[in-house]
Design goal:
Structural class: mainly alpha
InterPro entries: EamA_dom (IPR000620), EmrE-like (IPR037185)
Number of helices: 13
Distance between the termini: 16 Å
Radius of gyration: 18 Å
Keywords: Membrane, Transmembrane, Transmembrane helix
Shape: globular
Number of domains: 1
Helix content: over 70%
Protein name: Permease
Largest sheet: none
Membrane topology: Multi-pass membrane protein
Subcellular location: Membrane
Amino acid sequence: MPVTAGAMVRAVMIMFVAMSMIPAGDLCGKLLTSGGLATPGFVAWSRFAIGTVLVLPFACRGAWPLFGDWRLWLRAALLSGGILSIQIALKTEPLANVFAAFFVGPIVSYGLSVLLLREPVTLARSLLMAVGFCGVLLVVRPGLGGSANLIWAAVAGVCYGGFLTSSRWLSHLGTPLQLSLTQLSISALLTLPLGLAALPAPSLSTAALTFGSAGFSMLGNLLLLFAYAQAPASRLAPLVYFQLIAAVSLGWWAFAQWPDPLTWAGLAVVIGAGLLSARLRH
Protein backbone atom coordinates (compact mmCIF):
# COMPACT_ATOMS: atom_id res chain seq x y z
CA MET A 1 0.00 0.00 0.00
CA PRO A 2 1.52 3.39 -1.02
CA VAL A 3 2.50 5.77 1.76
CA THR A 4 0.85 9.18 1.52
CA ALA A 5 2.88 12.37 1.96
CA GLY A 6 0.95 13.19 5.13
CA ALA A 7 1.62 9.78 6.67
CA MET A 8 5.32 10.07 5.83
CA VAL A 9 5.55 13.51 7.46
CA ARG A 10 3.81 12.22 10.59
CA ALA A 11 6.13 9.23 10.72
CA VAL A 12 9.23 11.42 10.39
CA MET A 13 8.05 13.78 13.16
CA ILE A 14 7.27 10.84 15.45
CA MET A 15 10.73 9.40 14.74
CA PHE A 16 12.44 12.67 15.69
CA VAL A 17 10.55 12.72 19.00
CA ALA A 18 11.25 9.03 19.67
CA MET A 19 14.96 9.38 18.88
CA SER A 20 15.16 12.30 21.32
CA MET A 21 13.31 10.51 24.11
CA ILE A 22 15.58 7.46 24.18
CA PRO A 23 18.77 9.49 24.90
CA ALA A 24 16.73 11.57 27.38
CA GLY A 25 15.98 8.38 29.31
CA ASP A 26 19.68 7.55 29.40
CA LEU A 27 20.46 11.12 30.48
CA CYS A 28 18.22 10.57 33.52
CA GLY A 29 20.06 7.32 34.20
CA LYS A 30 23.42 9.08 33.92
CA LEU A 31 22.29 11.79 36.36
CA LEU A 32 21.38 9.03 38.83
CA THR A 33 24.61 7.06 38.56
CA SER A 34 27.15 9.85 38.07
CA GLY A 35 25.58 11.81 40.93
CA GLY A 36 25.84 8.84 43.29
CA LEU A 37 22.06 8.65 43.73
CA ALA A 38 21.73 5.07 42.43
CA THR A 39 23.77 2.19 41.04
CA PRO A 40 23.69 1.09 37.38
CA GLY A 41 22.04 -2.15 38.52
CA PHE A 42 19.17 -0.29 40.17
CA VAL A 43 18.69 1.99 37.15
CA ALA A 44 18.50 -1.00 34.80
CA TRP A 45 16.09 -2.94 37.02
CA SER A 46 13.81 0.04 37.72
CA ARG A 47 13.58 0.78 34.00
CA PHE A 48 12.36 -2.75 33.29
CA ALA A 49 10.05 -2.88 36.32
CA ILE A 50 8.35 0.44 35.60
CA GLY A 51 8.12 -0.41 31.91
CA THR A 52 6.39 -3.69 32.81
CA VAL A 53 3.78 -1.85 34.88
CA LEU A 54 3.15 0.63 32.06
CA VAL A 55 2.75 -2.02 29.34
CA LEU A 56 0.88 -4.67 31.34
CA PRO A 57 -2.66 -3.24 30.96
CA PHE A 58 -2.31 -3.12 27.16
CA ALA A 59 -0.58 -6.42 26.48
CA CYS A 60 -1.54 -8.97 29.13
CA ARG A 61 -4.16 -10.73 27.00
CA GLY A 62 -2.58 -13.57 25.07
CA ALA A 63 0.95 -12.88 26.31
CA TRP A 64 1.20 -15.44 29.12
CA PRO A 65 1.83 -18.56 26.96
CA LEU A 66 4.88 -16.81 25.50
CA PHE A 67 6.73 -17.01 28.82
CA GLY A 68 7.24 -20.74 28.30
CA ASP A 69 9.45 -20.17 25.25
CA TRP A 70 13.15 -20.26 26.20
CA ARG A 71 14.04 -18.14 23.18
CA LEU A 72 12.25 -15.15 24.68
CA TRP A 73 14.25 -15.58 27.87
CA LEU A 74 17.47 -15.51 25.81
CA ARG A 75 16.22 -12.35 24.05
CA ALA A 76 15.47 -10.71 27.40
CA ALA A 77 18.89 -11.72 28.76
CA LEU A 78 20.54 -9.93 25.82
CA LEU A 79 18.46 -6.83 26.51
CA SER A 80 19.29 -6.97 30.23
CA GLY A 81 23.00 -7.21 29.50
CA GLY A 82 22.81 -4.31 27.06
CA ILE A 83 20.95 -1.94 29.36
CA LEU A 84 23.11 -2.80 32.38
CA SER A 85 26.32 -2.32 30.37
CA ILE A 86 25.26 1.03 28.98
CA GLN A 87 24.36 2.26 32.47
CA ILE A 88 27.83 1.25 33.71
CA ALA A 89 29.40 3.22 30.85
CA LEU A 90 27.18 6.26 31.39
CA LYS A 91 28.29 6.54 35.02
CA THR A 92 31.63 8.04 33.92
CA GLU A 93 31.52 8.64 30.16
CA PRO A 94 29.97 11.46 28.09
CA LEU A 95 26.55 10.71 26.64
CA ALA A 96 27.65 11.26 23.02
CA ASN A 97 30.66 8.93 23.34
CA VAL A 98 28.54 6.18 24.87
CA PHE A 99 25.92 6.38 22.12
CA ALA A 100 28.57 6.39 19.39
CA ALA A 101 30.21 3.25 20.82
CA PHE A 102 26.78 1.69 21.34
CA PHE A 103 26.12 1.95 17.60
CA VAL A 104 28.29 -1.11 17.08
CA GLY A 105 24.91 -2.81 17.64
CA PRO A 106 23.56 -2.52 14.07
CA ILE A 107 26.89 -3.87 12.77
CA VAL A 108 26.67 -6.91 15.04
CA SER A 109 23.02 -7.39 14.10
CA TYR A 110 23.90 -7.35 10.40
CA GLY A 111 26.57 -10.02 10.86
CA LEU A 112 24.37 -12.24 13.02
CA SER A 113 21.42 -11.88 10.64
CA VAL A 114 23.59 -13.02 7.74
CA LEU A 115 25.07 -15.96 9.67
CA LEU A 116 22.03 -17.15 11.62
CA LEU A 117 18.98 -15.94 9.70
CA ARG A 118 20.50 -16.34 6.23
CA GLU A 119 19.57 -12.79 5.28
CA PRO A 120 21.02 -11.58 1.95
CA VAL A 121 24.51 -10.10 2.03
CA THR A 122 26.04 -7.60 -0.37
CA LEU A 123 29.63 -6.50 -0.72
CA ALA A 124 28.72 -2.80 -0.53
CA ARG A 125 26.76 -3.14 2.72
CA SER A 126 29.44 -5.35 4.24
CA LEU A 127 32.10 -2.73 3.46
CA LEU A 128 29.92 -0.01 4.96
CA MET A 129 29.48 -2.08 8.12
CA ALA A 130 33.28 -2.36 8.33
CA VAL A 131 33.62 1.41 7.87
CA GLY A 132 31.03 1.97 10.61
CA PHE A 133 33.01 -0.29 12.93
CA CYS A 134 36.11 1.82 12.24
CA GLY A 135 34.06 4.85 13.31
CA VAL A 136 33.23 3.13 16.60
CA LEU A 137 36.93 2.38 17.11
CA LEU A 138 37.71 6.08 16.64
CA VAL A 139 35.40 6.82 19.57
CA VAL A 140 36.46 4.00 21.88
CA ARG A 141 40.19 3.98 20.92
CA PRO A 142 41.07 0.87 22.98
CA GLY A 143 44.65 1.10 24.21
CA LEU A 144 45.19 4.42 22.40
CA GLY A 145 44.09 6.96 24.96
CA GLY A 146 40.40 6.12 24.97
CA SER A 147 38.55 5.50 28.20
CA ALA A 148 38.45 1.87 29.29
CA ASN A 149 34.90 2.35 30.54
CA LEU A 150 33.71 2.94 26.98
CA ILE A 151 34.28 -0.77 26.41
CA TRP A 152 31.07 -1.24 28.40
CA ALA A 153 29.22 0.85 25.80
CA ALA A 154 30.58 -1.40 23.06
CA VAL A 155 29.52 -4.47 25.08
CA ALA A 156 26.06 -2.92 25.31
CA GLY A 157 26.04 -2.51 21.54
CA VAL A 158 27.03 -6.15 21.03
CA CYS A 159 24.19 -7.28 23.34
CA TYR A 160 21.77 -4.97 21.55
CA GLY A 161 22.87 -6.32 18.17
CA GLY A 162 22.02 -9.81 19.38
CA PHE A 163 18.70 -8.51 20.72
CA LEU A 164 17.81 -6.96 17.35
CA THR A 165 18.58 -10.20 15.51
CA SER A 166 16.59 -12.27 17.99
CA SER A 167 13.70 -9.81 17.67
CA ARG A 168 13.56 -10.46 13.93
CA TRP A 169 13.89 -14.19 14.57
CA LEU A 170 10.97 -14.23 17.04
CA SER A 171 8.74 -11.46 15.70
CA HIS A 172 6.12 -14.01 14.57
CA LEU A 173 5.45 -15.25 18.11
CA GLY A 174 3.23 -12.36 19.20
CA THR A 175 2.21 -8.75 18.75
CA PRO A 176 4.76 -5.99 19.38
CA LEU A 177 3.10 -5.13 22.71
CA GLN A 178 3.05 -8.77 23.81
CA LEU A 179 6.72 -9.16 22.97
CA SER A 180 7.46 -5.88 24.77
CA LEU A 181 5.77 -7.23 27.88
CA THR A 182 7.83 -10.42 27.82
CA GLN A 183 11.15 -8.61 27.34
CA LEU A 184 10.43 -6.05 30.06
CA SER A 185 9.06 -8.43 32.68
CA ILE A 186 11.69 -11.14 32.14
CA SER A 187 14.45 -8.52 32.19
CA ALA A 188 13.02 -7.08 35.42
CA LEU A 189 13.17 -10.57 36.94
CA LEU A 190 16.74 -11.19 35.73
CA THR A 191 18.02 -7.86 37.10
CA LEU A 192 15.98 -8.00 40.34
CA PRO A 193 18.95 -9.07 42.54
CA LEU A 194 21.00 -6.11 41.28
CA GLY A 195 18.10 -3.73 41.83
CA LEU A 196 17.43 -4.86 45.39
CA ALA A 197 21.11 -5.11 46.33
CA ALA A 198 21.52 -1.33 46.50
CA LEU A 199 18.22 0.48 46.90
CA PRO A 200 18.79 4.26 46.79
CA ALA A 201 17.81 6.59 49.59
CA PRO A 202 14.31 7.91 48.87
CA SER A 203 14.11 11.50 47.63
CA LEU A 204 12.05 13.50 45.16
CA SER A 205 14.99 13.94 42.78
CA THR A 206 15.81 10.23 42.79
CA ALA A 207 12.18 9.30 42.18
CA ALA A 208 11.81 11.86 39.38
CA LEU A 209 14.98 10.71 37.59
CA THR A 210 14.08 7.03 38.05
CA PHE A 211 10.65 7.52 36.49
CA GLY A 212 12.19 9.78 33.83
CA SER A 213 14.73 7.09 32.90
CA ALA A 214 12.01 4.47 32.50
CA GLY A 215 9.33 6.75 31.08
CA PHE A 216 11.37 8.43 28.36
CA SER A 217 12.85 5.12 27.24
CA MET A 218 9.46 3.42 27.24
CA LEU A 219 7.73 6.24 25.33
CA GLY A 220 10.56 6.45 22.82
CA ASN A 221 10.35 2.77 21.97
CA LEU A 222 6.54 2.86 21.93
CA LEU A 223 6.57 5.80 19.50
CA LEU A 224 8.77 3.72 17.21
CA LEU A 225 5.87 1.29 16.85
CA PHE A 226 3.55 4.14 15.85
CA ALA A 227 6.11 5.51 13.36
CA TYR A 228 6.55 2.10 11.73
CA ALA A 229 2.77 1.83 11.46
CA GLN A 230 2.78 5.03 9.36
CA ALA A 231 5.67 4.26 6.98
CA PRO A 232 7.98 1.35 6.05
CA ALA A 233 10.88 0.73 8.42
CA SER A 234 13.35 0.89 5.51
CA ARG A 235 12.40 4.51 4.81
CA LEU A 236 12.65 5.51 8.46
CA ALA A 237 15.89 3.64 9.23
CA PRO A 238 18.25 6.60 8.57
CA LEU A 239 16.44 8.65 11.23
CA VAL A 240 17.66 6.24 13.92
CA TYR A 241 21.00 8.06 13.75
CA PHE A 242 19.32 11.21 15.07
CA GLN A 243 19.91 9.60 18.48
CA LEU A 244 23.58 10.57 18.15
CA ILE A 245 22.70 14.21 17.48
CA ALA A 246 20.28 14.21 20.41
CA ALA A 247 22.91 12.61 22.67
CA VAL A 248 25.49 15.28 21.76
CA SER A 249 22.96 18.05 22.41
CA LEU A 250 21.78 16.62 25.74
CA GLY A 251 25.35 16.00 26.92
CA TRP A 252 26.27 19.61 26.13
CA TRP A 253 23.11 20.96 27.79
CA ALA A 254 23.36 18.90 31.01
CA PHE A 255 27.12 18.56 31.52
CA ALA A 256 28.77 21.01 29.10
CA GLN A 257 30.47 17.96 27.55
CA TRP A 258 31.60 18.37 23.95
CA PRO A 259 33.18 15.55 21.91
CA ASP A 260 36.89 15.80 21.10
CA PRO A 261 38.03 15.89 17.43
CA LEU A 262 38.57 12.12 17.15
CA THR A 263 35.13 11.47 18.63
CA TRP A 264 33.59 13.93 16.14
CA ALA A 265 35.34 12.04 13.35
CA GLY A 266 34.03 8.73 14.69
CA LEU A 267 30.49 10.13 14.94
CA ALA A 268 30.67 11.34 11.34
CA VAL A 269 31.91 7.95 10.11
CA VAL A 270 29.23 6.02 12.04
CA ILE A 271 26.42 8.28 10.82
CA GLY A 272 27.70 8.38 7.24
CA ALA A 273 28.14 4.62 6.97
CA GLY A 274 24.75 4.02 8.57
CA LEU A 275 22.93 6.40 6.24
CA LEU A 276 24.56 4.93 3.14
CA SER A 277 23.79 1.39 4.33
CA ALA A 278 20.15 2.30 4.92
CA ARG A 279 20.02 3.88 1.47
CA LEU A 280 21.40 0.70 -0.15
CA ARG A 281 18.91 -1.43 1.78
CA HIS A 282 16.06 0.76 0.54
